[in-house]
Amino acid sequence: MRANDILEAIGETPLVGIQRLSPRPDVKLWAKLEGQNPTGSLKDRIALRMIEAAEAEGKLRPGKVILEPTSGNTGISLAMVASRKGYRLTVVMPENASAERVRLLELFGAEIVFTPADKGTNGAIEVAERMARDDKYFMPFQYGNPANPQAHYDGTGAEIVRDLPEVTHFVAGLGTGGTLTGAGRRLKEHNADIKVIAAEPELGELVYGLRSLDEGFIPPILDESVLDGKFLVSAGDALRATRDLTKEEGIFAGLSSGAVLHVARRLAERLDAATIVCLLADGGWKYLSTEAWSPDLDLAKKQVEETLWW
Ligand SMILES: Cc1ncc(COP(=O)(O)O)c(C=O)c1O
């Protein structure tokens, strides 16, 4: 790929076979490696799209400060795009975000407002909404911004259809719902029989980046009519599968990717033949300071819970 600048290098991520992880020979598993984006996650796609949409609509002008509640990845992506385009950024996030996230935000020049860890991202959303009443701020608000699913419709979904037209199932994590809604819509336009499956954490279980709808907040951009089903995942299932990705396939991915792989394998056990695309949302780098890969799984789980929250 050749790009005139880093923003042009967003998207066009590799689709990689992960057949060693399939429980059935006729169920083909593929991984879409969103960790290959410039800041290492799928959120580069939506950060660029939300900012460019706001510029085009006149909502974001020089001098305005971008403000966003985030668990980390979206903040880092916005920070990169904002610094490239010359905007200031303030992110609101839970105080126990991993050290790598905080460092990355700082080095891209973002200001951070921390909110209590035990309030999770819902707490960060409340604080950001209050701050956004001051009109020096522009808040893209990924949970309610149609540019979020649109980025996955035009990018993620279209790339999968082009690279693997025989796809039968798509599995992705549910955070804002942008990936499932946008890529899911694009896939169903290609073939209405394609099934779109969500990986959702069990209520009270921590899988970084994902949320349980049973917590009470339904992201406005989530179109539940695109979903054909969901599987619940525990934190332990996600951690185990994240390690399998590294050990069996050499793919170093984040914890929601493990959740997605776990769901894809459970789905595969029920099918005779299928072609399943797993959306691996980020790389493992931003989790290294946690004990996610510790040989002691219980220690890993405890440590991850202490250092990361939603
Ligand atoms: C690591 C990770 N995985 C998955 C997701 C879920 O993606 P989406 O917000 O498109 O539902 C997110 C985003 O919040 C994330 O940060």
Structural features:
310 residues; alpha/beta; Rossmann fold; 2 domains; six-stranded mixed β-sheet; four-stranded parallel β-sheet; 9 helices; 10 strands; 39% helix; 17% strand; globular; binds pyridoxal-5'-phosphate
Write the layout of secondary structure elements.
Blueprint: E1 15-17, E2 27-33, H1 43-57, E3 65-69, H2 73-85, E4 88-94, H3 99-107, E5 111-115, H4 120-131, E6 137-138, H5 147-163, E7 169-173, H6 178-190, E8 195-201, E9 229-233, H7 235-249, H8 255-269, E10 274-280, H9 297-307
Parallel strand pairs: 2-10, 3-4, 3-6, 4-5, 7-8, 7-10, 8-9
Antiparallel strand pairs: 1-2
Bound molecules: pyridoxal-5'-phosphate.
What do these coordinates show?
By secondary structure, the protein is of the alpha/beta class. It folds into two domains: 6-36 and 155-297, Rossmann fold (3-Layer(aba) Sandwich); 43-138, 3-Layer(aba) Sandwich (Rossmann fold). Helix content is 39%, strand content 17%. The chain contains nine helices and ten strands. It has helices at residues 43-57, 73-85, 99-107, 120-131, 147-163, 178-190, 235-249, 255-269, 297-307; strands spanning 15-17, 27-33, 65-69, 88-94, 111-115, 137-138, 169-173, 195-201, 229-233, 274-280. The protein has a six-stranded mixed sheet with strand order 1-2-10-7-8-9. α2 links the parallel β3 and β4 (88-94). α1 (43-57) packs across α5, α7 (235-249) packs across α8 and α7 (235-249) packs across α9 (297-307). The chain starts with 14 loop residues before the first strand and ends with a helix. The relative contact order is 0.17. The mean pLDDT is 93. The structure holds pyridoxal-5'-phosphate. Pyridoxal-5'-phosphate binds next to α6.
